[in-house]
Amino acid sequence: YITAPEISNQGNFRSILLYRCKGDEYLTNLLKSEGRNKYITPQIQNEIISACGNLILQTIVKKVNNSQCFTVLADETTDISVTEQLALCVRFVDEQNNVNECFLKFMEIHSLTGKNLADSILNGLMSCGIDCEFLYGQGYDGASNMSGQFQGVQAHIRVKYPKAIYVHCAAHSLNLAVSTASNIKPIRNCLGIIEKLYNFFNTPKRNHVLLSTIENSDVDQKIKTLKRLCATRWVQRYDAVHDFIELFKFVVDALECISDWKDSSAIDASLLLKSMDSEFLISINIVQLMFSFGLPLCKQLQKTKIDLKEAIDLAQDTINELKKIRDNCEYEFENIFSKAKEMADEVDIVLKIKRISKTQTNRANPNDNTSNPISNVQDYYRITVFIPYIDYFTSQLTERFLSHSKVFNGFECLFSNSVDLTENDKAYFKELVEFYSPQIDKNNAIAELRLWRAKLQRSGIIPKTGIDALSECNSEIYPNINLLLKILCTLPVSTTTPERMFSALKRVKTYLRNTMSEDRLNGLTMMAVHKSIAINPDDVIDELAKQPRKLEFIL
Prior knowledge:
With 555 residues, the chain is α/β, with parallel strands linked by helices. The protein is 58% helix and 7% strand. It has 24 helices and five strands. Strands 3-2-1-4-5 form a five-stranded mixed β-sheet, with helices on both faces. The two termini are 18 Å apart. Mean pLDDT is 88; it is low at 1-5.
């Protein structure tokens, strides 16, 4: 039985129970009685946690099976106990035509081969009670063991469920596009210097110098510290670049102060000061402009309710704007150059061309093999840094999102209100119907498509997203179109939901609780993540009563 807190350390759980006893006579009598059935042992508590998790899981599984159309999302990570955990999630459309992405469970895995991961995913779905015959999509990152055409997870799953289309995470595609484009030497060096400056000032002594410089100035500066460059999402580095530009003058003043010290910090400060030259100032302003166009797309791709059509439209809008900047590169770069010149004037830096020679190999040399050498600083950096970066950025975005556009081709004809079908519409739609046959009736599909587009024309509606179209589509009148729209809304856009579960994993399985079982981990995670799903105590008691035990559960 529970003794008084002053006699011994009862632990957090029992101490909280004792505190809860105050003012509750029934609970006090139960916990301090001589009986054995107090339900406070670790074993029964784990059973209660597991029962709560099972009830939440049953609620989610019922919705998934009722929708008869879902996508699996999965990603793996290592927890605090160096155990590989696979986060298993599903994406589906509920009866109210709302897109949901729900966590199901963590699974401990011991092999990262495509075959073993595919078996783990399918076994995990079946153990939850989900009917895999309704599996229409797969969403993973671009790792070879997940996306491989022959031995990847998606290939092994499609052998059993051919209609489960694999869609590469759009957020990862954007990240790869930005990171690959940023390998241009001036841009790479610029971001590297910003990271080194963050690390340099990430000590109390040096950071105090930076704060003192800001406080002693006449400017009301709201931003006080440098931010670290995001290691995973490159576009999120916009905030770090923006803050650095705001603090540029103060950073230079702080480095000049530290360079007069009599220790090793003075050497590092002097080297960092010399690294911030003309190329650095122009490159950082180019990065800020490019990342500002990618940031809205990055944020939208992390939302749950975005569908494939909206993601492709947003990506195309970004590409079109970048092409406009490229067409007006002289005007756009003039604004960038003027901002860089203002920054240079603040700290007495002269913008100039780096030394080049006729046989230059390690630095851009537009004068090589040309009869009109470039001597203007603005023209030099526009040709050597700005234009190559924006061209590479645009081509990478177009290439990375090409696969998403191919998946959407067949569904595109569902969003037009023109009654007349073009030859491309007929070809793409016929291919789509053939792929999803026999769930889609091939005999009535074309006629139903014409009636659907006639309805849109009569109503004057052009749906912007799959959810908008699905809300207008009556499943009794247009059953085939309704199913196609539901499949489109179900197809994954990103794997942000499994990645968010990694944050929950860190909060639940901590350093002090690193030996918990998978049942306890999943139960706690389900209650932490799905707070909107209510748990009825009577249902928990019924769930516990199903387990065989030596003593009667309820007296």
